[in-house]
Design goal:
3-stranded mixed sheet; magnesium; elongated; CBS_dom; Tetracycline Repressor, domain 2; 449 residues; transmembrane helix; MgtE N-terminal fold; CBS-domain; single chain; 22 helices; 66% helix; 6% strand
Length: 449
């Protein structure tokens, strides 16, 4: 409600050409709130407010803007205004911005920047966008190891306004080799005449420039870091990754896994400009693949049609069997996919985890099998149906547990994302195996009756 009121106030101020009111509103906003507000304004309204609001503040909200709003602003900003915005933005945010533009647009914007800054941005653009190098910033605090605490503090006062994170100070030698790290609190409380090499922590948690961004985020989460240094193969400091970028990575990876678990490509709900056809083409291929895969269930039923015709009551329990098997498999799958993503599970722990899951699965299978067996017996009044349904439930849950536990490990071993094993794919596989177990047991028992 407050956001809607704020939008209404800005729109009213634009209509009344009240520049003082607009300046007052925007001066009190956080960058994220400013980005949300700007996204709700029309092109003409944006054109009016740009000369009024602080370009320095707009720069900090630029990375929060959606692609459409960002493009509109780029068209309205003069070269001189763009120069101010780009010089105020952090290097990783500028690299992300240029990565979304055409080569021609990127070159034009780079020309507006200082040569040194432009060269740093071009280096960042050369890294894989999902690697540590692709998300790092080159604005950090680094001081040579032979400096005293007093000298380090004097240098920090000079350059701190140009850095994104001032909580950690990284200690380097003349070759930029990373030697250690110290926090700002430790630096402020240390003896002013001590050398940095005497008080630094030489064991540094760091990321290599080609490390996957998800692994970097997991490291930061594991060690509760606000930033992590990025080094090359020679241990030379190249940049840092800050906690806000790590949070973005975690959100991005979680979103990607959810889409994969639903067997769909990434589709931004709020991106209405993509249109219906875009959503159709992203979902349809998966649905067609699953359509043919699900036909295997029909093939299994057709193969055992004779058994089904002899005891029609068998059909009553098909939804229960396939549904419960799918649920059991999804439970095991969710634990493994999450464990692999967070680093709690790896291939070395596969057999230990599999043994645990088999025991859990066997226990739950026995209980569920007994329950459905009794229900089938009292409902249909025959031991045959009770025995077949109960045994089928028991073996289906165990199979589902094995499939849900092992397949993600196998996919991870092959170098793919374990999340693709989830959702419809695993359910379809368990449906087919469950039906095969069910009708195979029915056929065997029928022959002995």
């Amino acid at each position: 409600m407050e956001a809607e009121k704020l939008i209404a106030e800005v729109k009213a101020a634009v209509d009344n050409k009240d520049k003082v009111k607009i300046k007052e509103i925007f001066s009190q906003l956080y960058p994220a709130d400013m980005a949300e507000l700007v996204a709700e304004l029309s092109s003409q309204e944006l054109k009016f407010i740009i000369p009024v609001i602080s370009l320095e503040k707009l720069a900090f909200s630029f990375s929060e803007l959606d692609t459409n709003t960002r493009n509109v602003l780029l068209n309205f900003l003069t070269p001189q205004q763009l120069k101010v915005v780009l010089n105020e933005m952090y290097s990783d945010d500028v690299a992300d911005l240029l990565g979304e533009l055409t080569i021609g647009q990127s070159k034009e914007l780079l020309k507006l920047m200082k040569n040194k800054d432009a060269q740093q941005i071009q280096k960042l653009l050369g890294y894989d966008e999902e690697s540590a190098g692709g998300i790092m910033t080159t604005e950090y605090l680094a001081v040579k190891d032979d400096k005293t605490v007093e000298e380090a503090l004097n240098k920090i006062r000079e350059i701190s306004t140009k850095t994104e994170m001032i909580y950690y100070i990284y200690i380097i030698n003349p070759n930029k080799d990373l030697l250690g790290v110290i926090s700002m609190r430790e630096l402020l409380t240390a003896d002013a005449q001590k050398k940095l090499r005497e008080i630094m922590h030489s064991k540094v948690i760091k990321a290599t420039v080609n490390m996957d961004q998800e692994e970097v985020a997991n490291q930061m989460s594991k060690y509760d870091l606000l930033a992590i240094p990025v080094v090359n193969n020679h241990n030379q400091l190249l940049g840092i990754i800050t906690v806000d970028d790590a949070l973005d990575v975690i959100e991005e990876e979680a979103t990607e896994d959810i889409y994969k678990m639903a067997a769909t490509s990434e589709f931004e709900i709020t991106a209405a400009e993509e249109g219906i056809l875009s959503g159709v083409f992203k979902r349809l291929p998966w649905l067609i693949i699953l359509l043919f895969a699900s036909m295997l269930s029909g093939t299994v039923i057709g193969t055992f049609s004779e058994s089904l015709s002899e005891v029609v009551a068998l059909a009553f329990f098909i939804p229960t069997l396939t549904g419960t098997g799918g649920n059991a498999g999804t439970q095991s799958l969710a634990i493994v996919v999450r464990g692999i993503a967070t680093g709690d599970l790896d291939r070395d722990k596969m057999f230990h985890h599999l043994f645990r899951e088999v025991r859990v699965g066997a226990t739950t299978a026995l209980i569920c099998g007994l329950i459905i067996s009794l229900i089938a017996f009292f409902w249909q009044g025959t031991y045959f149906i009770g025995a077949v349904v109960g045994l089928a439930m028991f073996f289906t849950i165990i199979t589902a547990t094995l499939v849900g536990t092992t397949i993600p490990f196998i996919i991870d071993y092959l170098g793919a994302d374990p999340a693709v094993a989830a959702g419809p794919f695993i359910t379809t596989l368990i449906d087919v195996s469950g039906l095969f177990i069910y009708f195979s047991l029915a056929k065997v028992l029928l022959q002995h009756l």
